[in-house]
Amino acid sequence: MDKFGKEYLDLLKWTLTDFHRADQAEYKPIYRNSGTFREGLLLKLDSFLNKRGFSLCRKVVSNKDSRLNGLDWPAYAETMIGLKRLNNIEECLIEINRNNIEGDLIETGVWRGGSTIFMRAVLKVLGDTHRTVWVADSFEGLPKPDAEKYPEDQGDSHFEKTELSISLEQVKKNFEKYGLLDDQVKFLKGWFKDTLPTAPIAKLSLLRLDGDMYQSTMEGLVSLYPRVSNGGYIIVDDWAAVEGCRKAVEDYRKQNGISDEILPIDRSAVYWKKGA
Questions:
Q1: How far is Cα 18 from Cα 81, in angstroms, rounded to an integer?
Q2: Which of these, 72, 68, 102, lies nearest to 87 by C-alpha position?
Q3: How many Å separate Cα 194 from the centre of its chain?
Q4: Of 29, 70, 66, 32, the residue nearest 50 (C-alpha)
Q5: Contact at 8 Å (CB) between 89 and 119?
C-alpha cells in the first residue's frame, strides 16, 4: 500500500465515522416511530413543525473518545463502530492479502453499511479484484427474541430500536456516495436463519459478526465459521457490549473445540485468527 492509498483510507475512516464532528452537538428525533400512541403523537407534531421550518429533536453531544471506541450512535455517520474497529478491519485485510488467504469478506449486521464500504475501499487500495464483499442484513432491524429456542435473548429489546432499521436502498446509496458500489459488492437481504445457510459463499477470509443478539451471533457462526479459511479472521463487534453475543461466541467455541486466542480491539470488540 503506497502513501496515497494510506492517506485515502485514513480520510475515509474519518468520514465514515464523522469523526471530525465528534465534539459538535448533533440533533436527533426524540421519537423512534415504534408504533406506540405516544410516538405517533410525537411524529405528527414533528410533521406539523417541519412544515413551518422547525423540528422536534433532542441535542446529543458526543466526544472524540466515544467516536474512537465506537461508544455512540452518530446522527450522520455511515458507521457507529469507531476508528479502532475500522483500523482492525484494515490490518486484518492487509494480512489476508499479504498471506494470500483464500476467501471473500462478510459482515452480518451492517446498519448504514460503513464497515462494508470500508472493506471494499481497502480491497481497492490493495488492488484486489477477486474477492467479494458480502453485505448481510435484514435491512428491517433485528428480529424479536425467540426465547424458547434462544433463552439467552429473553428480554432483548433490540427489535424495538427502529433507528437500527436501514433499508437496502439506503445502504446501496451509501456505497454509491463513495463510488464503491460495483460487482465486488453483493447483498444478502433477510433474516440470518434464512439467508446464511444457503449463501453462495465457498470460502471466507474475513467474518465480521455484528448481530448483537445471541441468536444472530450463533446463526452467523454456525453457517459461516466453517467456511473461514485457516489464517482468516473472525471479528465480534458486540463481545463486551451484549452478554448474549459473548455467550454465543463462548458456546460455539466450546462446542467446536476452538482455542485460538481472542484479542481485544477496543472496549467492546474482539477478534481472533483461525488456526489449522
A1: 11
A2: 68
A3: 19
A4: 29
A5: yes
20 in Cβ contact with 62 (< 8 Å): no
Which residues lie closer than 8 Å to 30 by C-beta, 6 or more apart?
42, 56, 57, 58
133-172 CB burial, b ≥16 within 10 A, e <16: bbbbbbbbbbbebeeeebebbeebebbeebebbbebeebb
pLDDT in tens, the chain (276 residues): 889 999 999 999 999 998 777 665 555 555 454 455 655 665 666 666 666 666 655 555 567 777 878 777 787 899 999 999 999 999 999 999 999 999 999 999 999 999 999 999 999 999 999 999 999 999 988 888 888 888 787 888 787 777 788 899 999 999 999 999 999 999 999 999 999 999 999 999 999 999 999 999 999 999 999 999 999 999 999 999 899 999 999 999 999 999 999 999 998 999 999 996
Reference 225, options 246, 196, 264, 268; nearest CA is 196
Q: Which three cell numbers stand for residue 180?
A: 464503491
Residues ≥6 apart with Cβ < 8 Å to 3: none
Q: Are 78 and 71 in contact (CB under 8 A)?
A: no
Q: How far apart are CA 103 and CA 227, in angstroms?
A: 8
CA nearest neighbour of 227 among 138, 137, 143, 134? 134
Spatial separation of the C-alpha atoms in residues 188 and 166, rounded to whole Å: 14
